[in-house]
Amino acid sequence: MRLNPRRQANVNPVQKSAHTAEFSAEVEEEPPSQVAAPAAALPAPETRPLRLRPFIKAVPNYPVSHRRKFIQIHYPGTTDQQWNDWQWQIANRVRTLHQLERFLPLVPEEKSALENLETRLPLAVTPYFLSLLVGRGADYPLRRTVVPTINEFARMPEEADDPLCEDHQSPVPGLVHRYPDRVLFLTLDFCSTYCRYCTRSRVVGHGRLFFNRRRLEQALEYIRRTPSIRDVLLSGGDPLTLSDSRLDWLLTRLRQIKHVEIVRIGTKIPAVLPQRITPQLTRMLKRHHPLWMSLHFTHPDECTPEASRACQRLADAGIPLGSQTVLLKGINDSVATMRDLVHQLMRIRVRPYYLYQCDPISGSSHFRTPLEKGLEIIEGLRGFTSGYAVPTYVIDAPGGGGKIPLMPDYRQGCSGGDILLRNYEGRIYRYPDSA
Ligand code: SF4
Predict the structure, then answer these.
(1) CA-closest residue to ligand 1 atom 1
(2) What are the C-alpha distances in Å from 52 to residues 68, 204, 218?
(3) 396 an active-site residue?
């Protein structure tokens, strides 16, 4: 298949940007948003243009054999090299009801939601992530994380578009300064795949927060003149959907600020688009240590051979990896599923870092669990698995109060100067609390 010239113009800016001066002109939009042509205009998957420009170095060494059948059925003629090219994955995302029903028989709750998404968080799923969903029912946990249902339209009184009040703690556009020594830097509003429970669904996917030099300089200037900031968390949207050269530019600028001790990147890429983690990317990232990464894994089925290889590459580049997992009803809200997830994460060199109580964002009631569920899960992990595998369970306080840790109470009272403690098996032990 060949691209028509217009389509080609849409597909190539990502690659082009990686090979040209990034800011020779004011760039108003992050290239991946341009790659994602208006959804209705995307060709059907079977007829997708697949041509690559000659200078693109796709990474062929992600395993493909177990995806072969899916590729043959849904993307016939696609080479392994194309499948493993992250920009091909982005250009071929599924974005509409019409496209999605070519892969999955949709239930009425999904169809109805997709017909009415309009200004809400859009639909976008990479072909790779779709390959994990085919052949599974509407209740399949991974499907529920990315395919909208009509439940998203139910608004509860306790919900808000911005429950964490990030917009009120934003000194300059795209920067949230809540804690004294660190800032959240929203680099762009683009993600390769949109999670239906996204805390920033008011921002992401709407094409309004661009990797724009003027805005970035404003944010950098704020960080520069605020010496208390020692930690910058790059988030979005997903910063790893930026080209290597843009990310390199931003990291270099941050590294030039003496009081910025560490930079963290928050990303879901290893779970939804592992092909993005290329040797070129990790080579570039290595130049900006100390660099940390907060990954976003939700369910053990995301820990595929591809995700494993992506995490291995990041870990081999010396980047400490932690996972931030949102507790979601019907998706990962059981001790067994969470235990499986944390074990899989440890195997792929990712430390389970936070378990988040789902934020009360608008339309999230079908995802939220009672607090007791989170405590039950932590109790089911602590003592039953390695301490490193037990995440910290937190609520991000509505109103902007920050993260508040929650723990099952193992103290059972006092007796004769001793404190009574319950261990993981429910046995009571005494500790002399006299010091
Ligand atoms: S990857 Fe992160 S920012 Fe993007 S939709 Fe998912 S949760 Fe939101």
Answers:
(1) 268
(2) 20, 28, 36
(3) yes
Give residues (CB < 6 A) around ligand 1: 191, 194-195, 198, 200, 204, 236-238, 268, 296
Return the ligand 1 atom nearest residue 194 CA.
5
Q: Which of 148, 146, 140, 153 is nearest to 108 (CA)?
A: 148
Atom of ligand 1 nearest to the CA of 200: 8
Split the chain (435 residues) into runs of 10 and give each run's mean pLDDT: 34 36 35 38 39 46 92 96 97 97 96 87 97 97 97 92 88 94 96 95 87 94 98 96 97 98 98 97 98 98 97 98 98 98 98 96 95 98 97 94 95 94 96 85
- Note if 333 is an active site residue: no
What lies within 8 Å, CB to CB, of 372 at 6+ separation is none
Could you tell me the distance, in angstroms and rounded to a whole number, from the CA of residue 374 to the centre of ligand 1?
21
All domains of the chain, ordered by start, with CATH?
5-143 (no CATH), 166-406 (3.20.20.70)
> What's the alpha-carbon Rg for the chain, to the nearest Å?
22
